[in-house]
Design a protein that fits this description.
mainly beta; 10-stranded mixed sheet; 18 strands; elongated
Length: 222
């Protein structure tokens, strides 16, 4: 499979396949390719650029490391209950609707410095998701994108300006110093400004990291 460039639609749908080896030339996985299979682990997919709808839905993957992805399709990882971590994706521009819906073990999503769109319900039901990075390239976060996510640690790149239709995310962003949220109903206008070092210990030249914590059961504070 070393020279394989595409995996066709439904190629391994519902199969008992648990592992696939290195596919260093793979660039595209079509819809439903591994949907409902027993897949737990994939090898090198470092050139993979596109994952279409339901490609890995309801599989048993624990980690996704696909650094050159450019787009993630609808429900691509839907209900992957064992998925805990998604690595950095430097070229990713769009996460479509329900892409990670109900990935209940998902705790961390890596940096996506060129992300522009987060689709409706993309991370909805990811009730273990603690960390997310919002880059200045971001333009829109759609309805219910982060519904049910605790999001106790947010990273917002200074200079970020985007429309937010997600009530849960907007409520978290309102608590962050240096992040302005305007509007009484969606879409909320989000603007992140640079902070002085004294107001955020995690300030770097690249991004603002602010920890949200709960005190005595009260709402998160900064």
């Amino acid at each position: 499979m070393l020279n394989l460039k595409e995996i066709k639609e439904g190629a391994f749908i519902g199969s008992s396949l648990e592992e696939v080896g290195d596919m260093p030339e793979l660039t595209k996985i079509h819809g439903w390719a591994f949907d409902g299979s027993s897949l737990k682990e994939v090898g090198d997919m470092s050139k993979l650029k596109q994952i279409e709808s339901h490609a890995f839905a309801e599989t048993k993957l624990a980690k996704v490391d696909m650094p050159n992805l450019e787009s993630i399709g609808f429900s691509a990882f839907l209900s992957c209950m064992s998925l805990e971590e998604v690595g950095d994706m430097k070229n990713l521009t769009i996460i479509k609707g329900l892409a990670f819906y109900c990935c209940r073990s998902l705790k961390k999503v890596g940096d996506m410095p060129n992300l522009k769109q987060i689709g409706p319900g993309a991370f909805s039901g990811c009730n273990s998701l603690q960390k997310i990075f919002l880059p200045k390239s971001l333009q829109n976060v759609r309805w219910e994108a982060f519904d049910g996510c605790p999001l106790e640690e947010l990273s917002v790149e200074p200079g970020a300006e985007f429309n937010c239709y997600c009530e849960n995310l907007a409520s978290k962003l309102r608590l962050l110093k240096g992040v302005n949220v305007t509007g009484e109903k969606p879409p909320y206008k989000i603007q992140a400004v640079s902070l002085q070092a004294s107001t955020a210990q995690g300030l770097t030249t690249r991004q603002i990291r602010l920890k949200l914590q709960k005190a005595n059961g009260q709402a998160p504070i900064t």
